[in-house]
Amino acid sequence: MTEQQVIAAATQSGAQRDGLARFMRVLGLGVGPLVVALVLGGLVLLIMGFNPVSYYAYVVQRAIFSPSGFEATLTRMGPLLLIAASLIVAFRAGIWNLGGDGQYLLAAVFVAAIVPLTLGVLPVWANLLLGLLIGAAVGALWGLLPAILKAWQGLNEIITTLMMSFLGVSLANVLVKLAFLDPATTTPQTRTLPVEARLPRLFDTSVSSGLIIGLVAVIAVHLIMTRTSFGMRLRLVGANPRAAVHAGLSVPTLTIAVFAISAALAGLSGAVDILGTHGNVRADWNPAYSLTVVPLVFLARLNGFGSIAYVFLFSALTIGGESAARRIGVPSFYSLVIVAILLVTLGLAEYLDKRHQERARR
Amino acid sequence: MALFTQSFIITLFLGAIAAGIPLLLAGLGEQLSEKTGVLNIGLEGMMLFGAYTGFLVAWSSGSLALGFVAGAAGGMLVAALMALLCVRLGLNQIVIGIALTLAAEGLTALLHFVQFSRTYPRLDGVPTWPIWPLSEIPFVGPILFDNNVVFYLAIVLVAVFAWVYRQTNLGIALQAAGDKPAALDAAGVDVTNTRTTAVLVTGALAGLGGAYMSIVVAGVFVPFMTHGNGFIAIVLAMLARGRPLWVLGGALLFGGSLSMTTALQVAGVDIPTDVIQMLPFAMVMIVLLVAGRKAALPQALGESFVRGSR
Amino acid sequence: MQALDQAPAGFATTPSGAPVVALRDVTKRFPGVVANDDVTIEIRSGEVHVLLGENGAGKSTLVGMLSGLQQPDEGRIEIDGKPCVVASPKQALAMGIGTVFQHSMLVPSLTVIDNFALGGPWWKRPDRSGIAAAIRDAAKRLALRVDPDALVSSLSLGERQQVEILRALMRGSRCLILDEATAMLTPHEAVALGELMRRLVAQGIAVIFITHKLNEAIAYGDRISVLRLGRKVGEIDPETLRGASESETIERIIALMFGTSGSGEGSRRERSPRDLGGVVIDVKGLSSDAGRIPVRDISFSVRAGEILGIAGIDGNGQKELAEVLAGQLPCDSGSILLSGSEIGGASVGERRNSGLRYVTDDRLGEGTVGTFPVATNFLLKDIGSTPFWQWGIERPQEIRLQAERHVRDFDIRTPGTQTPVGKLSGGNIQKVLLARELTGAAEAVIFAKPTYGLDVNNIRATRKRIREAADNGKAVVLISTDLDELLELADRIAVMDRGRLVGIVGNDDDARDAIGRLMSTGGGE
Questions:
Q1: Alpha-carbon distance B215 to C397, whole Å?
Q2: Do B278 and A174 touch (CB under 8 A)?
Q3: C203-238 tens-digit pLDDT
Q4: What's the gap in Å between the CA of C390 and the closest CA on chain A?
Q5: Three-state DSSP class for C524?
Q6: Which residues of A touch C376 (CB under 8 A)?
Q7: In 10 A of CB A197, how many CB atoms?
Q8: CA A155: distance to chain centroid?
Q9: C192 vs C140, C145, C196, C206, CA distance in Å?
Q10: Which chain C residues have a beta carbon less than 8 Å from that of A227?
């Protein structure tokens, strides 16, 4: 399943002419693997001695039908959606930015270090805006080196982004422990942004407005990639770099632009998580969102709206799973298993579909 | 200097070896995969799964040897999925690799929890096999010649791999599978089978490396305990290209910087672990910056092989 | 696998003159194309049998079937007179058919010895000294110089080929297929290969030599089969070949390869004399080393309404010339004037904006994106332009309307404007490219092999477009390896050889002969 094939599949699903057969095929490709994955996941539960039906029912009940759980699910979505947006830009342009975790965490640390200090100087809204800008800038900066190496030296970005990610995570910890330590507490962590100075909550709920930022980002990215000339250029480079050269595009410039946008969005995700939910960064904290979201955006075939659905699903699985961990005793890691099985079943479905089509053509 | 006392240096070296052996085993495995043209991003998952199965069997059977075998088998199991999906079915190696890593992370944490809840039973220390009289050499003896079986095995494997790569028909075939699969196919050797075998061996080695972490180094299984070691091993293999000896050097270098903290603490210097942990990655980036384009990879890396397509 | 460890006493052979391998009434189809149509060819030992034909004539498919990569749909392959199925490359080798492909099948990162050892039992150590001795021995018999310890990546392409020939022979090949063997070689290396072929047949080996170069076919071949559009259109046997003078043979082959004069379409000039406009493209002393074939000191000019044909054997720098003109490759020296202004330093986009269009021959590789819809592919070179985008935002209505217009005007057979272009046939993909390049403010158009790989109807349609472009006052550069096409369309024809223009002739009654001479001699007379 290369990105071209994913895009091809997405393009095909966009064509409305071929009617019911195509619709059924897309439905089969989109929902079939999900059902199979949930069944396989249920088998895992069964083997471990849990009742899969009551587990799934509990997770759905907690994460979606209980108000506090549902709000937690939605809040969790904000940073995840920003990561998804970051990955969609990169993957659609054919660039494997696997360094999102470093970009996210470094941005989070810088935001957490600076924003509580500037709070006295700036009004709250300006302070939040500053935080978002810092996050995006730090993320983009951390993506710069792999971008340059890829654009000018043709160096494989999988390795460089992974390395920069590990480096970034360690650097973030060093900064928390040495430079940005909160002198007021004994636990190694940054200063804490007071709750009233964080991103506003939506209406009367506890849902952070980070959700809105995430939704806007992922929809904007989707529209930019599918509806604008800039997005078209990026997709052209991703689908066929030689055609891009033939069409007169500057591939190195676009590569650096893609890295900048993708890394900035990952950084923004860190900023939103700090400004909206956590308020500070503790030492050795690393939620490792980026690698987890990679399968999700692939499941969604790099489609923004599909990603929203999958991120919601994953968010609900983790929130519900965390409750279930306390109540039923199934650890929250179960959601990782589901995502991984889902990806494998989807890959298989994709493969079977391709085989089927090739055979039909002969 | 007071810092470089004998105990400091011995701590440092022992630590370098303890942290380096898993990297060495996994790195040797990844090197094998990459030689045949498979970019095995799922290495982390294979290590972790090996760490879990190795620990579990060692703990329940009481036999460390069985534990190591189970570790290798566990890694191989994950590798078999990788081989099926990527080598045989030609799915994207990066995405499947990440998925398998996530699956291993989730599954091992889950299984460990089901079995042990929140307790972390410990294994007894691993017996060492002193090689007399070398073990009596001051300083070097206790580090190199009074060690456990897997350590000796890993060192021997470096030599074996170097020998296989350079001296056997197998080595020639492996090289061809990654560099010019069509040539290997034309010579009557099945490229897909060659790659499948390589990936399976990679899984076994990574699993053994993981088992070394849980059985020897930690004596306990903790969820997510491989902590990026698999990814470091991938980079090691890439930088070492075809040379097993370079993986050994790199693994010890990385292992050394990982163990530096403990050694410094022994010497009474308090530096956060993370500063030291950054060093190897920073080193890699600098190497890549300098080597640039020359950090070549096998021609057919990451591409599945279809006969007749060039 | 052959045991290479034992040095062979001699090469495997068959009694001279007997057919070693034969194709009988072989037909091979690919989706939309008949690659080989009822072809019968016999390969005899002690003979260099040349398969001559332009690209797309079906030579590679024949090789594929003989070497076990593909299976014939109809007809059969006979080895030593017995019908056989050649199911895999390994089996072909076991039957004594060794193939040296155009693209090297050696592993670059291994030594020559290890490449010979490849495929040996995996648990064994290769007998490197034994293999080296065998290589030296075999090389000596063929008067070749091969260093067994050299890394393949350090060898020149000609040396690699010698190594491959040697390897095929040492594995017991009685029939050696050399696929486009001279295409990548320097002239000097090509001569050496020709001499080697003579030595091989002298030792009783059967050689199949695939080429599209006339002079090589005549110089080294004993028997020549000419392929055209998948059919075998003629065979010249050794007696005839020896009996005729070189110029007679050339004439005969050109007639076979490009269709006989005076019959069939395309022999007649369809361009009526008419007034040409001012000079639109003016190229002076253009050189570039950036491509695979260096382009040297090219000068020509094309006036409005004129078609300048560029003839030449494929791979003599035509593609590179087109890319330098279009801006995809940098030019090292010289100048390109478009309507009087210098564009030599301009980007691809700037050249397009000033009216230069380039219809590439690599339609799916760089011309289009197979997974993108037809409508999008019309606009790949105009991303962001009005009225299709406004402030950078797509206007689907405009894009759809344009796509529908193009589909209608250029008669593109597609299920819809949203169909991925990769699903269309080659002819329709070409129409998509033509629609993209020929509309708007084009002043000059470069066509690279515009009818390559198309069927007759699409060839006719494409040629009509080219004529129309010129009639509408555009300056046209038409690169083609199809002489008939050039004679049909062009006003003047330049011949390109090894990166240089070796001559430009007017398209009059003597043009065919003049071009044939320039092509076979490289202008060196």
A1: 66
A2: yes
A3: 888 999 988 777 788 888 899 998 887 888 888 888
A4: 9
A5: coil
A6: 232
A7: 19
A8: 24
A9: 15, 12, 6, 18
A10: 393-394
